[in-house]
Structure formats: structure tokens, C-alpha cells
Amino acid sequence: MKAPKYPQYLPTVDHTKFPDWEEVPFVDAGSRGTTDKRNLFLPGSKHKPITPRLGEEIDGVQISDLSKEGLDDLALLAAERGVLVFRNQNFKDVGVQKQLDTVRHFGRLHIHPTMPYPAGIPEMHVVFKDPNSTAPRLSSIKPEETQSVSSVVWHADHTAERQPPGVTFFVALEVPPSGGDTLFVSATEAYNILSDEYKKRLEGLKIVHDNTSMLEYAASKGLPARFSPSTQLHPLVRTHPATGKKFLAAIGAGEGNGQPRYIHGFKREESEATLRLLNDILQRSGDIQARASYEPGTVVVWDNRVVGHSGIQDFQGDRRHFVRISAMAEVPV
């Protein structure tokens, strides 16, 4: 196998400590977007739904050339459609500063608490799998005691932050010939399919989100623990500031594969039963899910508030190299 095409984005382990996040004002870029997305869907561009309820595939638009108004339209479309798959992008080649500045339009850039980043670029999280690599696999997620039959682990990113990530860029640097896709599920549509009576019962509930175990496990393995542990209380039913639509902020909750832990004020059995039902809806409802596939030049943008996702580790013998850049959003309401 040839050497990596983008060595400047290879993962490095850096134990730099960062100040804990402080709450900052946030205005959603999507609140400035246009209903017809006139600044995003430029002449000559093409777009189509991935499924009726989730996702949009876009071609003929270069993210790197978008105006501020175009980026506002992108944010609104991501809030409405959940995940956007941009094809034939030059974004991987425009340089680090341009990449970071583009995502910074949507909010303060997140730094992963534990995982490797490219040398000197803490705002980028590296996703790298190479069968020829001699380095140990770097993961701050404690493995299960028994192996699962599936690689699917549904979650939303870093929900234990005071201001969890919103708009997220996932930039393909090298992709396998097939496989390595990402599954997405709409938390907005999951809420919509509930009965009105059940929706009433969920209103006002809050989930405890906690990343302590991730940081402790990382430290036990000699990996970075860049921030203090964070425990937050966020609403189970949230409202998106740009669309006004409600969604279920419960993906992976109570299952040990994410940072949402339990419903505040409920007894254990009550919390487990409620979260099991909600995650059955989120994880098993194929009609509110979509699958993003990758090819050279693909950039996938999602709104981490309104979708859950899972990578699929179904490829063997090929390199898969991505960088993820995430903008932190509002304090959940």
C-alpha cells in the first residue's frame, strides 16, 4: 500500500491541557438562512433528497467558494435535512486555515477531549484506519467485555459539553473502494412519529450527560485527558433555534455507548424502560435513517443536534482517513 496521501493530517498524541469550556453567546447561522437556499443552490448545481425524511446530496457547489450567506443557507439546510453529502469538493486541499475558518463560521471550534489530532491542529479530530500501520489503535472508548456481532454504535458527539457541537464537517481524505459508510438517523423525525400523548409525557424531562468514564479510561491507557470531566443536565426534548422544530436528544442514552446516561429524577428501571423505547425507535426505524457513502472529494456535513450517527467498520485491507471539524452550538433548550 502506498504512503498516506495527506501526511499532514495523520494523528498525533498530544497531552496538552486546555482550559475548561466557558459558556459563550451563540447565534445559529441557520437563523440567517433563506427558505429557498438561494445562496447555496447556485446556478448549475444539483441536489436531491437521500431519503424523503433525511439527507440531501449536493453537487456543483464548492463549499470553499461559498459566501457567508451561502454558509448560512448551508446551516439552515443541515438543520432541516440533518445530513448533507457534498460531492466533488476541493475542501481537503484548500489548507488548514481555510478549513478551520469555514467551520468557525458556525460557532466556536470544538477540541476532542481525548483523541489524537494532526500536529498543532487541536480543532481537528482524525479518523484513521490503516491495515499497514504499526501504531496501536488509539481509542478512548472502553471496549466491551464481549465482542458484538455488529460495528454499529449509535451516538451523537460530545453531548456532555455545556454547549455540544452542532454543525460538523467530515472531510474524506482517503476512502476504501467500498464500505466505511456512515449511518444517520433523524432525531427530528423520531420525535414527529410519536403520539401526541406520549410527547406530552416526555416534555420537561432531562437527561444526565457525563463524559467522566471516557476521560478516566483515556488516562488509564496513557492517552490525553485534555479537559476536566463534564456532567450536564440537558432536555430530553430539545428545540432547534433555527427551525423551531423539536427533536429527541436521546440517541444512545442509557446504553453505555454515549454520554447520555439516565433520566434525571427517574428510578433506574423507569429511566431504562423509557430510554430503551426511544432508542428502539431511533435505531430500528429504517424509514427515518439514511446512509452516507464516500468517494474522493466527498465532504459530509451534519447537524449533530438533530441526527445520531454510526460509522460502519465493514472494510478490510484498505486505508480510511478523515478529519472531523465541529462547531459548538447553544446551551440545549
From TrEMBL:
One of its GO terms (cellular component) is cytoplasm. The keyword Zinc does not apply. Residues 47-325 form the TauD/TfdA-like domain. InterPro entries: AtsK-like, TauD-like_sf, TauD/TfdA-like. GO terms for molecular function: 2-oxoglutarate-dependent dioxygenase activity; metal ion binding. The lineage of its organism: Eukaryota, Fungi, Dikarya, Basidiomycota, Agaricomycotina. SUPFAM superfamilies: Clavaminate synthase-like. Keywords: Dioxygenase, Iron, Metal-binding, Oxidoreductase. This is TauD/TfdA-like domain-containing protein.
